[in-house]
What does this fold into?
Amino acid sequence: MSDPQPGVRSPFVSAASNGLSLVVLLGLSLAMYGYERTLQPLYGSSPTRHHLNKVVWIACIAGMFTPTLRPSRALPLAGALLCAMPQTAHWAAVYTGRWHDPVWGPVATHALVIAPVLYWGIAVVKVLQKNTELQGTPFQAMSLPVCRMAIMTLQDLWPTIDGLRDTPERDLLVYVGCAALVAWVALPFIPSLDALAAAPGKPAVRSSSSFSLTGPNLARLAVLPLLPYVFTNVQSPSLPRPLAEPFVHPEASLRILSSVSSAYSGVVVVGEVPPPTPAMLKAGNVSEPHSLRYLRAGHSLLGGVWLGDRVTSLDRGTPLGKDKFGTPIGDSIYSAFVAQEAAVLVERPEAAKKQSALMIGLGTGIAASAFIKRGISTTIAEVDQAVYDAATNYFGLEVAEPDNVHIGDGRGFVVKRAFNMTAADAETQKQYEPFDYVIHDLFSGGGVPGHLFSVRFWEDLTKIIKPDAVVAVNIAGSLQSDSTKAVYVTLREVFPQCRIFHDSLEPMSEEKMKTEFVNWIFFCTPLAEPMVFRPAVEADFLRSYMRSRVLPTIHEREVNGDSILGDLSLADESAKKKYILTDEKNPLIQWQEQEGLRHWKLMREVLPDVHWETY
It folds into this structure.
């Protein structure tokens, strides 16, 4: 068999180049995964991803169509940037976040931090794939979408790998960066790679020696002893997780009690804005907010409570609660969680004396604590162990029945419970009583998990609740947004009736509801009879000022379902198909993207920047 013609790659070389190209694309995809996780606490999901795909396209186009950059130059540049990315990504996001622009802030961060790495990575792929038989634009046009798809699509693979999901994002980035630097060091000493890296358009030259022992190439070996130092000393500017002890900010009025990594939101933080000191009060140097503790997941607040002199109760006696360390805590800083408790005001003539409730999504545990205090057997389904730990340690949640706590996906819990309650074995059925109340609160970071809002989910839920049960569903957004319509239309597809309330303590015009970001609570029931809320009495308040304001006036915050539907009619089957959420067609996450941008900006108005930058 004759040797391959000059300039034409042998099958072995082509296979090797394809394999190496795949390795590079996998590395870029893993770097993107680590980069996005780094940005989660500072930008959340929606702002981070809003224009990320476009930035990736631009970087890929630039890497593919600009003059060829040899791997001997591209690899060290990409490797160095990746090793530095725990620092550069953090600080770029910190400073652009202060613009309070959820669109162009992330774009600027992407352009400064990840785009150069993608450009140099694609430049390496371009050299590896270059073939004299496929010169010019057609080759590049064919390779471009493959590169972009590999980088973005393969990211869905990484969270399924337990070891990677639990690996800190800082480690992921430095691992990939060090791998790129090792490849650069090894490149001249591997003949096959040396041949692959030959200048495009020139025939591959066989080396007469197994190694290229020139001075510059040997000098690269000096990089190897530095890599352990890089891996050990290049740290993220964020706080160590978990925190060994509370962190007190040296300049701002801020304490971080707990900071824990989370596979679901990046980070779960318990922070405090301490009460003003006597010196601050005397000088009149008191700014809002103060005297509060909050629970943060990613770039979203899951709730909070008042501290210090803002811990009050209706009887002016003992505080409403204490955390695990004995610190008195007060009312919820948000009314939405108290409004959910209005489910107990719904008249249910057939209700048994012993009642039970299911919490899908825990937050700070405000609603769960209230149901437990009312003597209602409460089951908790929370996906994030870190959120549950924060609620029990820092927000006064005292679980009376630990066996009723389920850490995992809420849908999985509902499906399993429904299966057991409809099992053929009568003994198995008796072990599971249907619930009287369900509190469904999964809004976080400007969005919700779509699979927990589909028709099939609600149908499964009806299998584990009583015929007159009350289901309270919390969602946030504007009144007539597609996402709000979709949730309402889908609920009405399963439940004969729902009543809708907002959580604002101030009167709201319909025009304001259509434009502002508002929390909505949908109260639904399987019964066809009208849902009636009884008047709240003092026992419902549990000594809480917030409950005494919210529960007696719940009727004042009701919104007619037609205000959500607008011109849409529930009787029009063809029109409402657009909004019914199914497992096969569920655009809820896409519809909530714009709401996510608004939510990010709102969060920056609730707390100063330093609170979002410290985690």
In short: Confidence is low (pLDDT under 50) at residues 193-199, 204-211. The chain is about 45% helix and 15% strand. The radius of gyration is 29 Å. Residues 254-329 form one domain.
